[in-house]
Design goal:
Strands 4-1-3-2-5 form a five-stranded mixed sheet, with helices on one face. The chain has a single domain, classed as Alpha-Beta Plaits (2-Layer Sandwich). The protein is an alpha+beta fold and 101 residues long. GO terms for molecular function: acylphosphatase activity. InterPro entries: Acylphosphatase (IPR020456), Acylphosphatase-like_dom (IPR001792), Acylphosphatase-like_dom_sf (IPR036046), Acylphosphatase_CS (IPR017968). It comes from Odocoileus virginianus. It catalyses: an acyl phosphate + H2O = a carboxylate + phosphate + H(+).
């Protein structure tokens, strides 16, 4: 991936399946997103999954996607991560990374 490509802003929606509720998954996701300088949101769903949206430079978003797929919070157990609606954006839609209740 070239530097320019890595700097392109993208937006991607995600949903994480597994034991991801009641294990501080949202808190860790928010912290990791902020650490990478990403913006977006994360929330629990009624189906027992965690969903949200990531926005930022492609290279950072890829880092976060890998984190969501393989790491998560210490007590979580991720079965799979689903990513969709990926698109290039011209500007960020959010000012920070929020936990949505």
């Amino acid at each position: 991936m070239s530097m320019a490509e890595g700097d392109t802003l993208i937006s991607v929606d995600y949903e994480i399946f597994g034991k991801v509720q009641g294990v501080f998954f949202r808190k860790y996701t928010q912290a990791e997103g902020k650490k990478l300088g990403l913006v977006g949101w994360v929330q629990n769903t009624d189906q027992g999954t965690v969903q949200g949206q990531l926005q930022g430079p492609t290279s950072k978003v890829r880092h976060m996607q890998e984190w969501l797929e393989t790491k998560g919070s210490p007590k979580s157990h991720i079965d799979r991560a689903s990513f969709h609606n990926e698109k290039v954006i011209l500007k960020l839609d959010y000012a920070d990374f929020q936990i949505v209740k």
